[in-house]
Amino acid sequence: MIAQHVDRGPLGRDEMARVLARDIPHGAYVNLGIGQPTTVGDHLPPESGVILHTENGMLGMGPAATGDAIDPDLINAGKLPVTELPGASYFHHADSFAMMRGGHLDLCVLGAYQVSAAGDLANWHTGEPGAIPAVGGAMDLAVGAKQVYVLMSLFTRAGEPKLVKECTYPLTALRCVDRVYTDVATFEITGDAVLVRETWGISFHELRSRLDVPLTAATP
C-alpha cells in the first residue's frame, strides 16, 4: 500500500523540498535547477554526504546565504547567494557543462511546466506569445544526469494537471524523468507505468479521477 496522508497537505514549497531531499542517495553528486529546486539544498543534513554542483562552476555548494553570510561573488546559476562547504571547488563554465554532459552527475532536480507519462520533460517554454524562452542548461542536465527528479505543483492555477499523457509544450528532453515530486503526490515513472509512491491531502482514488494518466499504486 502507498502512504496516503489524506489529512495532511497539500504540501508547502519547503515541505516538498524536504520530501525530495529525503530521497537523494547518500554521497550523490547533484545539480539543483533554477527556481524551486534550489530550496532542496536547504534541507540536506550535513551527514547526507551529498555534493551539490551548480552549472556556473562550483562543487560543494551549501545552503542559501542570508544576512552577513551573503557574498555577492558567491552565487548559484539562478544568481541567488549561496554558501560554500569545506572542500568546495570552482572551475570554468565550460568544465561545468562537461561534467553535466559527460554523465558525471548522479542526479539533477528540475522544475517543469509538464511531464508526460513516458517521462518526457517540458520546462523551458509555454509557447505563449510574448513568453521568454529560456532553456539554459536544462537540456544538458536532462540528458546528462543519471537520474532526473522534477519538483513542481501538480495542477496549474486553473486546475489543469501538469502530469499528462503527452506534453503539449515544447520539449526539453524525451523519456528522461525518473520521479515527480508535487504538492499532493510523489510519482515514479518507469517507462511502463506511472507509480504513485505517496500522497498528501488527496486519496489515490481521487488522484486517479483528476489525472488523465493510468496510475498504479507503488508496492513497498
TrEMBL record:
<comment type="similarity">
    <text>Belongs to the 3-oxoacid CoA-transferase subunit B family.</text>
</comment>
<keyword id="KW-0808">Transferase</keyword>
<dbReference type="InterPro" id="IPR037171">
    <property type="entry name" value="NagB/RpiA_transferase-like"/>
</dbReference>
<dbReference type="InterPro" id="IPR004165">
    <property type="entry name" value="CoA_trans_fam_I"/>
</dbReference>
<dbReference type="Pfam" id="PF01144">
    <property type="entry name" value="CoA_trans"/>
</dbReference>
<protein>
    <submittedName>
        <fullName>3-oxoacid CoA-transferase subunit B</fullName>
    </submittedName>
</protein>
<dbReference type="InterPro" id="IPR012791">
    <property type="entry name" value="3-oxoacid_CoA-transf_B"/>
</dbReference>
